[in-house]
Specification:
By secondary structure, this protein is α+β, with helices and mostly antiparallel strands. Helices cover 32% and strands 30% of the residues. The protein has a five-stranded antiparallel sheet with strand order 3-4-5-7-6. It is globular and about 40 Å long.
Length: 151
């Protein structure tokens, strides 16, 4: 509900989501998982548009999908087990978290346009406002925060 007081718009609160939108998906590493994760993330962004009335530029949506692709690809290639993609979002940002069973922390290589491959974290750092990596009891979690108002 929205009240109008002396020309100002005052949100009454119950028509605005209180909790961030959260979704998670479990992947086994079988062929097609990375494409499934991108599809899952695309659906999540659409839910943000609908449920949070988030204004999301198509370029920023592409950045969210690329961050998901890179992080899930790293988990797929470098862990010896299943991994989890967790998305949390509001109208301001999407937090992409990937949990996997490997204790090895990802390595960000220096920029080198002649290097073939190993550009994933470089790409994620370029697109995300914040990237963190932490060890957890079952492996690690990599988190990237993508601002939706990025220009």
């Amino acid at each position: 509900m929205t009240d109008h007081v002396d020309g100002a718009v005052i949100t009454a609160g119950f028509d605005v989501p209180v909790q961030p939108l959260r979704r998670a998906a479990h992947y086994t590493g079988e062929p097609g998982c990375i494409a499934d994760a991108r599809s899952f993330a695309s659906h999540f962004v659409e839910q943000l548009r609908t449920e949070w009335c988030a204004t999301i530029d198509p370029r920023v949506q592409g950045e969210v999908l690329l961050v998901v692709s890179e992080l899930v690809t790293n988990a797929d290639r470098h862990s010896n087990g299943p991994y989890i993609l967790e998305l949390e979002g509001t109208d301001a940002a999407v937090v992409v978290s990937v949990y996997d069973s490997s204790e090895a922390l990802p390595r960000r290589f220096p920029k080198d346009p002649e290097r073939i491959g190993r550009h994933g974290l470089e790409i994620v750092h370029a697109l995300a406002g914040r990237v963190t990596v932490e060890r957890i009891p079952v492996g690690k979690r990599v988190v990237a925060v993508v601002r939706l108002d990025a220009v």
